[in-house]
Please model this.
Amino acid sequence: MSDESKKKDETVQKVEQCTTFSFTPDSTVIATGYDSGTIRLWNINSDKEMLVLKGHKDKITSIVFSNDGKIFASGSSDRRIIIWDAFQGHILKIIKGYWGSVNSLAFKKDDKILASATADNRIRLWDLKRKWKKTQELKQHSDTITKIEFSPSANILASSSLDHMVMLWKVANGKKIGELKGHFSSVTDLVYSPDGKALVTGSSDGSIKLWDIEKLKEIRRIAAVNTVFTSIAFHPTKKVIASGSSDNIVRLWDIKNANEIKAIEKHKKTITKVAFSPDGSLLVSLAADGKVKVWNVDDILAEADTSFLARAKKALDIDNVKRIVSNLWDKSIGRIVELQEEKVQVTDSEELRMKIAQELPELISLMNENEELKLADVQSRYNCSKTTVEDVIIVLLEENKIIGTFNTFTGIFTVQHEKGDFSREESLPETSVDYARTCFFCGEPINESMTTCPACNEELARCPVCKLTIDFDDELGVCIYCGIKGHLSHMKEAVKVTGACPVCRKNLDWDAEITEFKRTPRKSV
Model:
C-alpha cells in the first residue's frame, strides 16, 4: 500500500464522533462537542457551520450556555473547563485541576455562578465576578456525579449520582438541604420543571420519577421500563418529557397521566442525550455512535395523536365494550380528556391492592435469605397486573414493611432479613440468619454490617457501584486499567451509562474491557 493510500485510510479512521450538544437560549444556534476535543457552532435555520473551536485535548463531555447567551462553558475528559465568547469564539478563561474528567456543568440563572461536577465526586462553584474563583466545594456524594442543574426559580442546585442519590444544595452556603430517595439503582439524569417546583429523575433501574422539591417527596412514577434511562428532558411549555435509553429508543411521556405518548426507534445505539430547544419547537437526540437526529416536536405529537386513536379503536374492538367517547381532545398532550363507559372494564381494585399489601409481607417473612420472588408468581396468585404488583412492592419497600432488593428489569424481588427470620429461629442455625454473606478473600461467613472479616481480618470487598459486599461466589468484573473489582452486571451497567470505569474514570468498552474475574481463594472452604 502506498504512503498516500495509508494517509487516506488514517483520515477515514479519524472521523469525529459527536459526544454532546447544547442550544443557545434563543434556540438559533446549537453547539456540538466531539471526541477529538473540537467544538462546532451551527446555525439551526441554515444548517451552516459558524465556528470551529479548538482548546480541549480530549473528549467534550459537557457544554452549557449562559442564560444571556453571551458566553458558554465546556468540560472535557482532559480535566479542563474552558469559558468561551459565544459570538467570537475566543477563550476567556481556562480552569484546570487534578479532579479528573468534567462530567457536568451548569450556570446559575443570574449567570454569576458556574457549577462543575467532576470525576472525584465533587461539585465546585466558580464565581464569574471574582475572575472565576472557586467559592464552594460540595462533597457528600459517594460515587460519580452524573448531572447537576440549578433551579430556575430558587437558589438551589440539584445533583444526581451513581450512588442512587439525588441531593439538593443551598448555593449561598454550600449546605445540603435535602435528599430524594426512591431509586434502587444509579440516577443517570435529572431536570427541573420550567417553574422549578418539581424535578424529574431518570435511573438505570428502568424508572422515571417526578418529585415535589418543597416536600422532598415523590409525586408519581412516570415510567417503569425494562431498560436503562440515560437522559431526560422537560418540554419548556408542555406537560411532556423526553427520555433516551439503552434500548436505542427515544420516548415522549405525558407527565400528568404517566402515559407513553410516542416511541421513536430510529437510532441503532444507546441514546446518550436528549434535549428540547428552549423555544420547544425541536427535539434533538444523540446516540453512542455519534449520530445526531433532529425532530419537529409538533410533528411528533401529531403522529402520537393518530397512533393513540388507532390503538384506542383496536382496544374497543377487542374488548367488545360499548363506549361513548366525547369530542373533547387535548392537543397539547395528545390524549382523550373525557371517556365515559357504558360498561366498566375490569381493573385492579383498591381492595385488591390492599389485600396484596397486607399478605405480601407475611409471605416474604416465610422465605429464606436471598430467595427470589418473581412478579409473575404474585400476578398469578392474585390474578392482577404487573404494574399493580410493582407499585405495591415499591410502597412496601419505602415503608420498610419488607426488606430486600427489587430489580424492575427482571421483575425479581430478592429477600433480605435485616434482623433475621424469628418465625423460624429455633429450626435454623444462627449463622444462616446473622451471616448471610461470605468473605471474598477467605470464604468464611460475614455480615453485611461488618467492615472487616473476623476470620482473615481483611477489609470487606465492596462493589464500587452498588456498595454492597462482594461474596466469595459472586461473578465479578474487573477494569483492565485500574484492576478494581465489582459485581459483573453492575460494572458493565455503570460503564454502559458513563462510558468509563466508576473508579479510575478511564474510557472503557463495557463489552470488551470489563472482563470476568476468576479469583484464587486464599484458603479452601
